[in-house]
Specification:
The protein has about 160 residues and is mainly alpha-helical. The protein has helices spanning about 5-25, 30-35, 40-45, 50-70, 75-80, 90-100, 105-125, 130-140, 150-160. The longest helix has 22 residues, at about 50-70. The protein is elongated and about 50 Å long.
Length: about 160
């Protein structure tokens, strides 16, 4: 029996997110996603007519998870910069997409900017508007760091620079 559409779509989205989190949106091709998921490129384009459609779906999924995680934590700065346990996979993916915003297509860039504003609105009442922008900007710059120790070092530097 054929696999339900939602399962294939979800597998494609999961595979894309995995690659976006490790390689970034700009460095991930549809061919790589197809190989990772084990589907043909035509299947990807059936569910996501353009690469941007796939990227927007990925962005919306990780944005929702990021918003939930940030709203549930007492220390959003620690969550964004990582702690002993590290940054969640979804948040890392969101940060990588945000860091690449200037290089995205216009439609995807606009959606990424909306996402940044949405997260800022969540953080501003807790951190102050300027501090929220500073934290998000610094965290985006760390989105491509390879390991948690580098993130911890950068977080320590950022916090001490704020004092």
């Amino acid at each position: 029996m054929a696999e339900p559409k939602t399962t294939t779509r979800t597998r494609i989205l999961d595979g894309a997110l995995e690659l976006f989190a490790t390689s970034g949106l700009l460095n991930t091709s549809v061919d790589q996603i197809a190989r990772t998921v084990g589907v043909r490129k035509a299947n990807i384009f059936y569910y996501f007519p353009t690469r941007d459609d796939l990227a927007v779906a990925a962005l919306e999924r990780v944005e929702a998870i990021t918003l939930r995680q940030l709203s549930e934590t007492e220390d959003p700065v620690a969550l964004l910069f990582g702690d002993e346990v590290g940054v969640s996979h979804d948040m890392c993916c969101w940060l990588r997409i945000m860091a690449q915003t200037p290089f995205l297509t216009d439609g995807l860039q606009a959606r990424a900017q909306e996402s940044m504003v949405t997260v800022h609105k969540l953080l501003a009442p807790r951190l102050g508007a300027d501090a929220a922008w500073g934290v998000l900007t610094a965290a985006m710059g760390l989105g491509s760091l390879p390991d948690n120790q580098s993130r911890l070092n950068a977080r320590t530097w950022h916090i001490s620079a704020q004092k």
